[in-house]
UniProtKB/TrEMBL annotation:
Binding residue positions for ATP: 11, 59, 87, 93, 104, 114
Single biological process term from Gene Ontology: GTP biosynthetic process
Enzyme Commission number: 2.7.4.6
Protein name, UniProt field: Nucleoside diphosphate kinase
Keywords for this protein: ATP-binding, Kinase, Nucleotide-binding, Transferase
Record's catalysed reaction(s): a ribonucleoside 5'-diphosphate + ATP = a ribonucleoside 5'-triphosphate + ADP; a 2'-deoxyribonucleoside 5'-diphosphate + ATP = a 2'-deoxyribonucleoside 5'-triphosphate + ADP
Names of required cofactors: Mg(2+)
All copies of domain Nucleoside diphosphate kinase-like, residue ranges: 3-140
Assigned protein family: Belongs to the NDK family.
Active site: 117
UniProt-recorded Gene Ontology molecular function terms: ATP binding; nucleoside diphosphate kinase activity
Length: 151
């Protein structure tokens, strides 16, 4: 039974740069299952709660302002190992250190504009999904290609 989910988000720079399809496509082609998708402008409360572990960092305010600077595309992806795999697909926090082939390695040049977020643990996948998709249930559906993706 699959129960692991990752909260993935195209940040405002990714939306403005027209990278939404490119980023969603990488997770879709990998084979993970899309459970929720919404374009939205978030509130300061949600942005601060999302990044609460970084509250003491000197860049916290700039980070929150950046997340609020335009719409984001919020997603939930499901699959065994999806959290760690999504982090690999996304690449290192500093895009200059991110491997070519990763989203940040291919598409970004600065930590403060690194186009995409992915949860760093299964617990945070649940926490962030609850935060961004409050009340809106994620969608239950069966992916008919599933037997061609997993045994
Ligand atoms: P990640 O997004 O790879 O999980 P993180 O959780 O450590 O990285 O930090 C969240 C975001 O905060 C990151 O995507 C960009 C920003 N950030 C992290 N470290 C930073 C730094 N040293 N200077 C500016 N922004 C930073
Ligand atoms: Mg993080």
């Amino acid at each position: 039974v699959v129960c692991e989910i990752s909260y993935v988000m195209v940040k405002p720079d990714g939306v403005q740069r027209g990278l939404v399809g490119e980023i969603i496509g990488r997770f879709e082609r990998k084979g993970f299952k899309l459970k929720a998708l919404q374009m939205r402008k978030c509130t300061r409360e949600i942005a601060e709660e999302h990044y609460k572990d970084l509250k003491e960092k000197p860049f916290f305010k700039d980070l929150v302002d950046y997340i609020l600077s335009g719409p984001v595309v919020a997603m939930v992806w499901e699959g065994n190992g999806v959290v760690a795999s999504a982090r690999k697909l996304i690449g290192a926090t500093n895009p200059l250190n991110a491997e070519p082939g990763t989203i940040r390695g291919d598409l970004a040049i600065q930590t403060g504009r690194n186009v995409v977020h992915g949860s760093d643990s299964p617990d945070n996948g649940e926490r962030e999904t609850g935060l961004w998709f409050q009340g809106d249930a994620t969608v239950e559906w069966s992916q008919t290609i599933q037997p061609w993706l997993t045994e």
